[in-house]
Amino acid sequence: MSLVENIVLDLIKKKISISVAESCTGGLICNTITKNSGVSKIFNYGIICYSNKSKAKYLSISYNKLLKYGAVSHEVANEMINGLYKKEKSKICISTTGIAGPSGGSKLKPVGLVFIGIKFNKTNYIYKKYFKGSRNEIQTKTKNFVFKKIKELI
């Protein structure tokens, strides 16, 4: 049994609901969760908010914050999980925002920079990570990090 299968079984057993707001992972986390049978008992909501417009519209992130900090930031990852929680009240809310590449990076925000937000029991955890590799590898490493953190929290 895989790590994700074990986590999903734990979430079901403990009745811990989960919702996800993804940007740089483009649905990979939701897809990984929903591959598991019985997950409808705990999986509430998944949204891909790739553009700034969608982050503002669906997660209530202010354009001022997006302009001031940029979509790839601690602040926006935090606001993404807060916006998701306001909609769904899941016990676990996850957000990902980053630069998966191969283009789009800068000196301040290089390709591979990812901010991951996890709200668990109303406490926010924001992680700043630098992942190396191709676009697919950065997305996969982000997904793997999320599931390792969920396992630690539950």
Question: Could you characterize the architecture of this molecule?
Answer:
With 154 residues, this protein is of the alpha/beta class. It has a single domain (16-153), classed as Maf protein (Alpha-Beta Complex), CATH 3.90.950.20. 44% of the residues lie in helices and 22% in strands. The protein contains 6 helices and 5 strands; from the N terminus they run αβαβαααβββα. A 5-stranded mixed β-sheet has the order 2-1-3-4-5, with helices on both faces. A hairpin with a 2-residue loop joins strand 4 and strand 5 (123-130). The longest helix is centred in the C-terminal third of the chain and has 19 residues, at 135-153. The chain is globular and about 45 Å long.
Tally of separate helices: 6
CATH superfamily: CinA-like
Helix/sheet category: alpha/beta
Average of per-residue pLDDT values: 97
CATH topology: Maf protein
Summed up, the domain count is 1
Strand order across the largest sheet = 2-1-3-4-5
Rg: 15 Å
Write a brief caption for the model.
By secondary structure, the protein is an alpha/beta fold. Helix content is 44%, strand content 22%. Strands 2-1-3-4-5 form a 5-stranded mixed β-sheet, with helices on both faces.
Write the layout of secondary structure elements.
Layout: H1 3-14, E1 18-22, H2 28-34, E2 43-48, H3 52-59, H4 63-69, H5 74-88, E3 92-98, E4 113-120, E5 123-130, H6 135-153
Give keywords.
154 residues; alpha/beta; 6 helices; globular
